[in-house]
Specification:
By secondary structure, the chain is mainly beta. It is 4% helix and 59% strand.
């Protein structure tokens, strides 16, 4: 199973495999192996592998997309990242990068490069597992670049399009 969480805004991907009472977790390329000693409501006791390490007791609580884990006096808040398919570019620019939420095929392109779009306006339609997935503009702006074409197969998180925010004067000119 793969879990995605963010801690203090930094995303982590955790690949988790359970084999009876033995578990293996791959976090940021680092393998962690442990044995489950006890599971109860709000509590899990673990021992790292090899068994020479001391047992660790974790206390946990969950509320919808947020989980809290307390260990050795420290509490960690785990949040599921937003599944919007939109990520800001590095460097604080006004661009938005739209990414595929899952493996899919591009069925239709609704806006071309250079087009002015309103927030929420459909830009692309993807198809995955007989479902239609609309990729919409996250903000009022201009389609800066399309990275896909109709019929193309895309992987999860593949860059689909870039939308640049319009400055205030440009927005007034459109209306």
């Amino acid at each position: 199973m793969i879990f995605r969480y963010q801690i203090a805004g930094r995303p982590y991907e955790i690949e988790f495999e359970r084999l009876g009472t033995h578990c293996r977790a791959l976090i940021d390329g680092e393998v962690h192996e442990f044995d489950i000693l006890e599971i109860g409501p709000g509590i899990i006791s673990l021992r790292g592998s090899p068994a020479s390490t001391r047992p660790v007791r974790l206390y946990w609580a969950a509320d919808q997309a947020t989980k809290w884990i307390s260990m050795d006096g420290c509490t960690y808040r785990l949040e599921k990242p937003a599944a919007t398919g939109v990520r800001r570019s590095a460097g604080g620019s006004n661009d938005q990068h739209l990414r595929a939420p899952m493996p899919a095929q591009v069925r239709q392109i609704e806006a071309g490069e250079g087009d002015i779009v309103a927030e929420g306006q459909p830009l692309l339609i993807l198809e995955a597992m007989k479902m239609e997935i609309r990729i919409s503009a996250p903000l009022p702006g201009r389609v800066k670049r399309l990275h896909v074409s109709t019929g193309q197969t895309v992987a999860k998180d593949e860059l689909l399009a870039e939308v640049e925010r319009l400055i205030h004067d440009q927005e007034d000119a459109i209306v």
